[in-house]
Specification:
620 residues, mainly beta, Immunoglobulin-like, seven-stranded mixed beta sheet, five-stranded mixed beta sheet, extended
């Protein structure tokens, strides 16, 4: 929700770069989106209210409500009115991330109200924040704008002076939902949630058209399938209406084939040179496809229609509209408190809310890995989901995500290092509270291979939900997956893989798996470098001793002796370089022959000098 891209235009950042560096952003499009401003005072939120024109039609004397939801589940509210320039500033806001802020306003227009609403905001430690709240143009005849629908979809018609609270999850009955005035904390209404009958209009459609060069122009093949949740069957005896692709969605049909037992239908000899759409009604909902053209060739369209097998769970409460009043809904269930987003009602229509009866936080990861020498390297994306409108803060120094025991080389992607750090020997530490919706970050680690095996033992205090692990195969590899975790085999661009997905484990448990049949380091790779290292040290010591001796005798040495000394030093350097290559790339027949040659030459030089020394001693 935050960006460091600077605001363009006049008025201290009231405009923005939209269709080019100098083109101002349209206020309605950016309404409610917080924007980081590093030149603003820390902890300051600047709000500008406007009627879709930041230069000429600013909303003066408009009450702006700022609601704070804190990590300890306390709340705060502050109301300030805009000045003549449509601005107001909220100062000294919490920059630790322990508070999520919501900005609400109602702009009067044509006898109605445009409902403005800001996306949930955690203040940033790098600067202040700028936000535009915009209604439609003051003279517009459009119906009232409703930015609240961007956060809470208003999909179910709700009568005026009613609040519909839809519960996602499985509550324990009775589940009593209460609506409160956020300023006074006074309860205004309560009702028990109940399951309503399945809505025949709650159908989800997906359609996909593909041109078929093997079919003649004007030919259309149709496949219709789907069903209630968990089922996917051909839909027979359904009328498929073919309509013009460039006309209104309720245009008269051109053809109406009916699907057979296999869910398929055919339309032939359709006129070419014009676009078409497909229109179909399943249960009480109509779907119209995107336009397609049958001029160059025939085509086929597949339509999937699906719906739930249970009705939604909801509570409908009587809450009369009061202009400017800020409300919230709350329910205590299974000894946990669930709270809605703060909201304001509108005159003449009701309001729909969602409440999530899920665990407060869930951990999910998707990681891939492959063997590299004696390590299994893994990287991917990790997610902490927060099913609350308040930020989540773990006790102590922050939330820690443990990694498998013996993990090493732990890293966090560069772009995520302001929010996540590496806890050496443990895993990842979240540096800021988790915002509503959650936080994702990229990272990775390595696991050492011991005797051709890896024992993966990973503590999961939060559990994990719908996670996945993919590992590129090596010859002889096999994975012993956790109980109830589906182990699959597949192919990706890099080769064949093992995949464990979806992986779900309850809180306070551990993820344990074994990977066997991995490459084993040959024994000589362990002891040869050590022996060579000792040998090199001895050779270097002898070389240094001879070099010191030769320096003391340098005044009486003849030219031949000096040349032999230089040759010895060169041979010693070649021997050290050869040992370094052996450690990095392994020993081979070629390196062994080269080592024997170097040592033979050194022995010959040392023998020659020793003979000379004995001869010189005899002469003396």
């Amino acid at each position: 929700m935050l960006t460091t891209k600077p605001w363009m235009g006049a008025g201290g950042g009231a405009g923005g770069g939209g269709g080019g560096d100098d083109a101002p952003m349209e206020p309605r499009k950016i309404s409610g989106s917080p924007r980081l401003e590093q030149t603003y005072e820390l902890g300051t939120l600047t709000v500008i209210a406007t009627y879709d024109n930041l230069k000429e039609d600013l909303a003066a004397d408009l009450p702006i409500s700022l609601v704070g939801y804190k990590s300890d589940d306390t709340m705060s509210i502050k109301v300030q009115s805009t000045a003549k320039d449509g601005r107001t500033e909220f100062r000294n806001l919490d920059r630790t991330g322990n508070t999520v802020y919501f900005v609400l306003a109602q702009l009067p227009r044509n006898g109605a109200l445009d409902r403005a609403f800001g996306f949930p905001l955690q203040m940033d430690s790098r600067g202040g924040v700028h936000m535009v709240l915009s209604g439609e143009k003051r003279a517009s005849t459009e119906r009232p704008a409703d930015d609240f629908g961007r956060v809470q979809a208003q999909t179910i018609p709700t009568p005026a002076d009613k609040v519909r609270v839809v519960i996602n999850g499985v509550p324990e009955y009775p589940a009593t939902v209460r609506v409160y005035d956020l300023t006074t904390r006074q309860e205004l209404a309560h009702a028990d949630a109940a399951e309503v009958s399945l809505d025949a209009g709650a159908v989800n459609f997906q359609s996909q058209y593909a041109a078929r060069t093997d079919l003649p122009a004007g030919f259309l093949g149709i496949v219709l399938h789907g069903g209630a949740a968990g089922t996917d069957k051909p839909m027979a005896k359904e009328t498929i209406e073919i309509i013009p692709g460039d006309g209104p969605l309720d245009s008269p049909m051109i053809a109406s084939p009916v699907t057979e037992v296999n869910g398929q239908a055919i339309a032939e000899k359709l006129p070419t040179g014009v676009p078409y759409r497909v229109r179909v009604k399943v249960r009480d909902k109509v779907h119209v496809s995107e336009p397609f053209d049958l001029t160059a060739s025939g085509g086929a369209i597949e339509i999937l229609a699906s719906w739930g097998d249970k009705g939604r769970i909801e509570a409908v409460l009587d809450v009369p509209h009061v202009p400017g009043r800020v409300l919230y809904a709350e329910c205590i269930n299974r000894k946990h408190m669930y709270r809605s987003v703060p909201f304001q009602t509108l005159p003449g229509v009701g309001t729909q809310l969602s409440m999530f009866f899920y665990p407060r936080i869930l951990f999910t990861f998707g990681m891939g890995g492959q063997v590299e020498d004696q390590l299994l390297g893994l990287r991917g994306q990790l997610t902490i989901q927060n099913y609350s409108w308040a930020p989540y803060r773990a006790p102590g120094d922050g939330l820690v995500i443990p990694l498998p025991k013996h993990a090493k080389g732990i890293f966090v992607d560069e772009g995520d290092q302001t929010d996540v750090s590496v806890e050496t020997g443990v895993g990842f530490r979240m540096l800021r509270p988790i915002p509503p919706g959650g936080r994702k970050f990229g990272g990775g680690f390595s696991l050492p291979i011991d005797g051709g095996e890896i024992d993966w033992n990973m503590d999961l205090p939060m559990g994990t939900y719908q996670s996945s692990l993919r590992i590129l195969k090596t010859p002889g590899m096999f994975i012993k997956a956790p109980a109830n975790a589906p182990l699959q085999e597949g192919t990706v661009e890099q080769g064949e893989i093992y995949q464990i997905s979806p992986l779900t484990i309850g809180p306070q448990q551990s993820m344990q798996l074994s990977i066997i049949g991995l490459p084993v380091l040959p024994a000589w790779r362990l002891w040869v470098p050590r022996i060579l290292g000792i040998g090199v040290i001895l050779i270097l010591g002898v070389g240094i001793a001879f070099a010191m001796f030769r320096r003391r005798e340098s005044e009486t040495a003849n030219a031949d002796t000096v040349a032999r000394a230089a040759q010895r030093e060169k041979l010693l350097e070649d021997l050290v370089a050869l040992d370094r290559v052996t450690r990095e790339k392994g020993d081979s027949e070629k390196t062994r022959r080269r080592r024997e040659t170097l040592i033979t030459e050194l022995e010959a030089l040392w023998g020659h000098d020793a003979g000379n020394d004995r001869g010189n001693a005899g002469d003396d």
